[in-house]
Amino acid sequence: MSDELPVPPPIAREVFTGEAWDRAAAFAELLAGPGVVRGLLGPREVPRIWDRHLLNCAVVAEAVPADVRLVDIGSGAGLPGLVLAIVRQDIEVTLLEPLLRRTVFLEECVEALKLDNVEVLRGRAEELAGKREFDVASARAVAPLDRLLAWAMPLLREDGELIAMKGSRAAEELAEADAALRASGARTAELVSVGHGKVEPPATLVRVVAGPSSERGRRRRRR
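RE: above sequence
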């Protein structure tokens, strides 16, 4: 497999429009260059940057409401948080990442792409609980759903949403997290499919809606 950055597929022009196109192309170069050199992305992922990473993350925007404050938990190389900020200039994105080398990379990307709707925070979700509140929390390949709920739910306002990118095990993870969903004070939980006609297969998300904060706090104390 070649480790060269591929030509963007035609559908990328439809997903990334206007200024988002130039930013997406520049981000692809950053991922394939400094991202690989610094170990944020494996060399074998370079040929798949557009279809597996950029496009797969961009279609998550279909599930994100307008004009929200979004926190991307364990942002890593900025997937999906930085991509969402590129395609959705109406949202405010916080990239939350505990590792210094990753936050340095993210800060450099934000500056290079001239994104004024993004902030980079070094830290863990548990440390941010009670200090900040968001409308949406996103995550990709960070942790199993039960653990992710414990991190994300304290960061959400009532009726806020956790949008977790999951693969073929999404339905199984959702079923296994039944007890954690009840304990976290979740109001609803469902599978959502996005990116039809844009990515193959479509991206599978688990969307969890948070209940009242008092309810979530009470349920956590009972554990």
